[in-house]
Structures
1.
Amino acid sequence: MYRLLIYDDDIFKLFGSGKSSHLFTFELVATASELMNRIYDEYQYDLLVINYDVIEPSLLETFSDMKAKIIISYDKYSIQGLVHAVKIGAADVLEKPVDLILLKQIVFKHLSEQHKDTIYLSNGYSFLRTKCLIVSEQEQHVLSNKERLLLEVLSRNINKITSYEEIEAYVWQGDFMSSDSLRTLIKNIRKKLPENSIRTVKGFGYMLEVTETATVLS
């Protein structure tokens, strides 16, 4: 599970307005000093969301060596803010107001880029994310873009339920997901995976089942 640290009340409240995610947890800090303490005490966050309007630019520059990705949010367009975002190597900038779907898409995008390449599935099958392949000793299957995205989001919740809402946000990325299109996508990708790899959890979503703990390699 990914961890997000948020120094922006609006963004934190927006996350809270949606359903909880199996993919990540998000924590709020109220002050810049708390932000700094939390980062350097634990240093285990995958993504930071920092409001440019409430942090000193000089303090912001100390984040340039962060391993975690950083998204800079701001209430009003600012060239200076963009310059600082570039200087610290921010992954993205986010102008408010923003809706929950777009926010989740941006977060999923940057978390997916940190996701490792090879995920081992059941029965000797592997998912090669960047190559869009499912491989085993006997066969190899090329994945469509939507199949790859679906397997990415399911693989973050191995042996746990991934909700319809999470699938729609990550795979369809703002477009409408019909029940028929989702069922067709599931049907097609099941043909490329070991038998019974994807289980339907009626009324909730789907689950990628792996008989042994998936191993992820860089």
2.
Amino acid sequence: MPHAPASAARETPAIRRAAPDDAAAIVRVNGEPDVLANLLQTPFASVEAMRARLVEQQQPGKGDLQLVAELGGQVVGCAGLHPVSAQVRRRHAMVLGIGVARQAQGRGVGKALMAAMCDWADRWGAVLRIELTVFADNERAIALYKGFGFRVEGTHRAYALRDGVYADVLSMARLHPRPPQLGWPAGEEGA
């Protein structure tokens, strides 16, 4: 794989909400063999299905957040936070997924996407718990997640078929580091 010029390696990824027109780029990134091997998706994803999913996620009342990362105007990464369940007792939790194109790995793209996801969850999304699964041999991703406060909660044996072999995943989660509190206005305590 050719190395990027030093100036490109220092470029800060631009993070923005994904739009339906990003469907082909997201399918391209997630379909790269090195990326696909670490996702729970299958080869030959449909651009049309991704476009429909992005349209659906933007409907009023939907709690999904789908972001893309760009370097040099090209989508090189994507991440999503999706409600775990509509059940009342699980509304505080979301599941996270992320993919970064091979040529953009090690250039701060994953870190920028994770920072944006955690910031949104903590400050705007009323999210107490972010959950994810990661293949147990994906050390780079595990280190990224731990850097954002995720902890390993357990191992799922033979969780997913990956390239003809059943592979283990780790279940990881992050709890909001400073859950919002409601304080009484000065002078109104116990009123």
3.
Amino acid sequence: MQKHPNTYFSYKTPVGAVIIAANKEGITHVIFEEAAKNRLKTGKYKTLSNAEKTLESLGATKKASALTNKAANELLEYFAKKRRIFTVPLCMQGSEFQIKVWKELEGLYYGNYCTVSQLAAQMNMPDAKRIIGSAIAKNTLAIFIPDHRIISAKFSHELTSDAPIHPISRKEKLLAFELNGLPRDKKA
């Protein structure tokens, strides 16, 4: 059973506007302006305005709540490098398998990363890379469920080489942000 959001609000962050939606149980959606092309279960949207319309079609009202404010504050602390672990309650919405994958992602701590293949092996499901990748793509709780720590094999090579990191996607930029200032494994 889907637990739709009943409230949402737009906040400013160092990486642009973000919509945070919640119900009584926890945060249900985190939608960054740059990522507004991603899907909700009800369809696609291309702008934050369309994302708001989609949330309203699910019954949500544009109004800040204690939960959306707490999530926004935790995001601001994250971007200020004062927070590595989030404490705001989350209301994951998906199939049993998707939630299992997202819970596995929660175990990827700040500054750590892996590929889908590595995650599949860690879950003892090495042949399930595609379905695991699909579950990751359906994550509606960006940053709080750290899907940005799942990287392509190409980006993995870039992170482990001595070459400068050139992130291109929002997820790669977030991971590069987390790694900035942390010691690299290669070279002393």
4.
Amino acid sequence: MTDENVFYDDTPPPKSSNTKVVLWVFGICALCFVVCCGGAGVVAWRFGDAAKKFVADMTTTDPDEIRKQTAAMVDIDIPDEYQPMQGMNMVAVRMVMYQTPATQDGSQGMLMLMEMAMQQFGANAKQQEQELRKSMKQQSANQGYTSSKSETREIEIRGEKIPFEFVEGTNAGTPGQEKKTHMITGVFRGKRGPVMLQLMIPDEDYDEDAVMEMLQSIK
């Protein structure tokens, strides 16, 4: 018999790194539905378990397939410490995620690339990129990231100067034990459409020269 008292434990179990990543993936997927499909996407995502199952079925953890999907989106030199973790290909939306090995306290760096191959109805490419930037910031706030310092830097990609936000802040955690984290975000034109890049790095692992080298390698 199940002990009903288990369900009333006031102490929530800590979220594992993988659990946080899964939540992040589904948050980004919801973002995709909204940007691509507008109001219809909101309805489909909020009320369609079939839509969520479809997303889950389109994911892969095969490293070779994730690298293949990355190359189909953009040419970028990703440091060796970022290992392929998850990929998703829904034709109109493609997303890949890379992670660094966990430190003793469980902190990990994460690189996420998401490509939108379907243009939103009634919006041009620039408007769609702006909507992605706006939604990306909202998603970060929803995941408990609090910014304390922000700087915009321009990186030239395919002859165009692209603004990237370099942000310092903290991830949600036990009060008094929040982790200082660097977040770098930007949206640029990929091989098929707008590509959103988001990089999360624990402060103790942050190497600005390595970050700049990776961003400048984008083609």
